[in-house]
Design brief:
single chain; alpha/beta; three-stranded mixed sheet
Length: 262
């Protein structure tokens, strides 16, 4: 039978080692927590002391001055750069300034605020109930000129069945399809780059639309179905005519047009 050996464990040594491991672990946790606490305090001091607004830049504004826009920016110089709501400021600017179509407020650390403005373009003028309304291509009301029938060099547009017309909002029609049709009409102009050639629009009926092209042609469009094709057809026809030709063009049928020269 083989010989076996038994060694008595020294429990005191093992207990001491375990206690030392626990102490090291507690010290490590303590120093980690202390480092995190100091870091948080340091960051808090940096945010409170250094990240304060000292510059507000406004870009893209043409119709409104820097001061006019700043009146609607709820930011105080010297306040903390994280103390304000950018979404709320954007909405305040949009609500107060009709020519502003889009606005973006961004923090530019450490101490600047960038306000990027995209303005609406005045394109149409509409005479309604004794007032002239300046309109964007999608019929947002940019301005009202009381008791004055003046187009200010814009494209006069004849419209009816208007339900509401308030500055800063899109015109509301009795038939909501009118607005989408007018938007599609401008998209057709834009697709061929002829916006500046349009001198008048008659939209009293969305099924019988007509325009004046370059003070040379009265153009009957009909409705806005296939509007891009109709505008392409129109430009191709005019390109084939003499540069001083005038008359009437009917492109209501995108397959076949008629031209009557005067």
């Amino acid at each position: 039978m083989g010989q076996q050996r038994f060694v008595r464990k020294n429990t005191a040594i093992f207990d001491t080692a375990r206690r030392q491991d626990k102490k090291r672990t507690r010290r490590t946790v303590f120093y980690v927590l202390l480092f995190l606490a100091v870091s948080i305090v340091f960051l808090g001091v940096c945010v409170a002391v250094f990240l304060n607004v000292n510059t507000i830049n406004i870009n893209g504004n043409e119709n409104y001055s820097y001061e006019e826009i700043l009146e609607h920016v709820a930011i105080t110089m010297g306040e903390n750069i994280y103390s304000f709501d950018t979404d709320a400021i954007e909405q305040d600017i949009l609500n107060a300034l009709p020519y502003v179509g889009k606005v973006e407020v961004k923090r530019d650390l450490p101490s600047a605020v960038e306000i990027n403005i995209t303005e609406e373009k005045a394109y149409y003028s509409a005479y309604l109930a004794g007032d002239t309304y300046i309109l964007s291509p999608n019929l947002k009301v940019l301005k009202c000129i009381p008791d004055k029938n003046s187009n200010e060099g814009l494209v006069p547009i004849s419209i009816n069945n208007v339900r509401r017309c308030f500055v800063g909002r899109n015109i509301e029609f009795v038939n909501e399809r009118n607005l989408s049709s007018i938007t599609a009409l401008y998209s057709g102009f834009e697709s061929m780059g002829i916006q500046s050639k349009i001198k008048r629009v008659d939209f009293t009926s969305r099924f019988d639309i007509s325009i004046n092209y370059d003070n040379r042609f009265e153009v009957y469009i009909g409705d806005t179905d296939n509007i891009d094709i109709k505008m392409r057809f129109l430009v191709a026809i005019i390109d084939e005519l003499d540069s001083d030709a005038t008359g009437r063009i009917d492109v209501s049928n995108p397959q076949e047009a008629s031209v009557s020269l005067s």
